[in-house]
Amino acid sequence: MTVEEGELLGLIGPNGSGKTTLLNIVSGYYKADAGTIAYQGRAILGHAPHKLARIGIGRSFQITKIFKRLTVIENMLVAGLSDGKAARAEAQDRAEGLLRDLKLDRLRDERASSLSGGQGKLLEFARIMMLSPKIVLLDEPFGGVHPELKRFMHDRIRKWNAAGTTIILISHDMGSIFDLCERVVTLSYGDIICDGTPEETRNSPAVLDAYLGDHHGSA
Amino acid sequence: MSLTMLRVTGSGLLLAGFLILPFVLGDYWIYTVTIGFYYAILAASWALLVGYVGRISFAQTAMAGLGGYVSALSVQYIGLPPVFGLLLGVMIAAAIGFAIGWLTLQLHGAYLGLTTIAFAEILRITATAEYNLTEGSRGLQVVPLLENGTRVEYYFLFLMITLACLALMTWLLQSRVGLFFQSIREDEDGAASLGVNVTLWKIMAFAISSAFAGLAGGLQAHFVQLITPSMMSLQEMGLVLAMAVVGGFHNVIFAALGGVGLQVLLEALRELGEWRLVVFGLLTLLILRAAPNGIFGIIFDALAKRLLTKGRDE
Question: Is residue A60, in this structure, part of any structural domain at all?
Fold first, then answer.
């Protein structure tokens, strides 16, 4: 499977198809039994998650992993200062800009534990963008999110993608996948069963079989 | 008054109190508070590891003992001046702390706690068994840190070192390292996904915390001029844990105040004999249940809340 630079790719499949496992392997959390992963021509399989984050691979988690006892701005600074190079003032400026962009600036000094679920998702977005990633792996970012906030998140995803960030989006929300992505890859039991446009994916018998079972059309 | 002003005023008042104490207290209580400074560094070093990084350890007093023995033995057998002995103790404690941190990287909660207990017991039993070197349970005579030093001189030396340690810890915890520590406490995977080298900082936290404990142990040994393996016992560890919890282990200064406060209380309750430890145990349970931020945490939070309310009213 190849992902082109600047692409916004949807990754779908029934539960247990291996979407999150793939994402965990790419981001260094799981070891692979076999195969290779190349990023900008470099083999990265087996690299530690923090190293991958520093070379531009950002990710979110199905259940947000925001630091609840830290304030919103401190959450941002962890990402901004983790490479050991950025000055605090510079990181702070960037963090504040991103918080403004995601309408979280008034919550700057609040503890992350006081954020709503949707605000937590936005904070996770903002933290990832602090890394200035080249590729972002989003795992179910719309789960439990209010439709209005979802539209706002769509808008930001499009904006980052338009700015050159490659995005791989995992979601069970087909509306979002088909709305945002030009290419959709479908997994089933770890295999790619379809790789095409939203239209091709919608009409693929293999995809329908994977989601509804072999005999969906026989009744 | 802002929160910063509250912090500065509180610290100033406490410092003034500690500076005046030797002029109003008798020799016995000066000695007691000086020992309290040893516990203050130890409790703060434990709080740094547990409160900020979320890594539990029951080997803190063992590290203090290690620092004490290394310093005492290097002065006695190699002829190092006590100050260099102390530094060597700090370095060895840091190195062993680094090794424990590395060995226990994948362990959490009860498993981590049990492993550190095993390590502490290995150190204590080794110090007891190596009679030819350490004089076992009888205790090893240690060269004093100050030649003909008075109690007041030791008091001020310990106060100064305690303040320096707390300043260093506070600086570290307010730097990016403090943020990395707290992010690891909150969620290791989340921290790694943002570029934090979780492995390195978990190990470093053990090393740094152990270095402070080693320094405290070395100071104590040269002050009391005797070191015994009981310094590394689990009962001592329980005492340090109680001090940090009662003071407030989410803040190194509160934990340090708990160290001094409980040491003074321990001496004040001496008439109760072993029962004072029961009192301490109950107090720790009560604080953990009712006030997880510790006594000083509650006081600070209450004052801060009052300040904020007053500010809003005005």
Answer: yes
Best of B183, B184, B193 to mutate (most A CBs within 10 Å, chain A)? B193
User: What range does the domain containing A204 cover?
Assistant: 8-216
Count of beta carbons in the 10 Å neighbourhood of residue A202: 14
CB A31 within 8 A of CB A11: no
- What residues 31-70 of chain A have any CB closer than 8 A to a CB of chain B? 48-50, 53-54, 58-59, 61, 65-70
Write out pLDDT tens, residues A151-167: 999 999 999 999 999 99
Q: What is the predicted ipTM? A: 0.92
Model confidence pLDDT, tens digit, residues B114-154: 999 999 999 999 999 999 999 999 999 999 999 999 999 99
Dist CA B48 CA A108 (whole Å)? 26
Question: What's at B10, amino acid-wise?
Answer: G
For B148-175, letters b (16+ CB in 10 Å) and e give eeebeebbbbbbebbbebbeebbebbee
Taking the CA atoms of A125, A127, A131 and A137 in sequence, report the sign of the dihedral they define. Answer: negative
Question: Is there a domain that residue A1 lies in?
Answer: no
